[in-house]
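job 3f2a | input accepted
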Amino acid sequence: ALGAGARKALDAAAAVRKARETRNFALRALQGGGDRATRPTVDAIEVARVNDRMAAQLQKTLAEQSIEIDYAGAKILLDEDAVRHISRRHGNVATEQLREPPQVAVTLDDFARLPNDLRRPDSIKVPTSLRSGRSRSGAGVEFNKQRNDNLTIIAHAREDMMNEQGGPYVSVRS
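job 3f2a | predicted structure (174 res):
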């Protein structure tokens, strides 16, 4: 059996590997090209899993939208289209500075921090814009992580989003 120190070191090493893997995935997605219409499938990476604490928060949050799904253990996925969308919409420093309030542009390092940020969000909530009804893309939730740049990760958790085994998953969007 591993001691607490050894387990902590293994967990830290796994976190570093996942961060590097996620950053490299984002880089490949940005260097790739094309759009969904020209490709039969979209590549995705699992950036985190929904732990029990997050599942309880998600369940409570989604109940506000009359959705009852158990997300415990669900994958949190980031796909190539999401990487390109996030970079196109939120990766330009000048554009982000013009937003009200001013924002910090998303970088490859932000993608690398996604696994850790998603495993330990400060809060999970329904965006104000969705409280009065669903968006076209489904039930949106915000995973908020307080950092120096006050990152907000928007992900979608919908009743029709099921993985190949029929289980629910959460998809990172913008």
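job 3f2a | The helical segments are 4-31, 52-63, 80-90, 93-98, 108-119.
job 3f2a | closed
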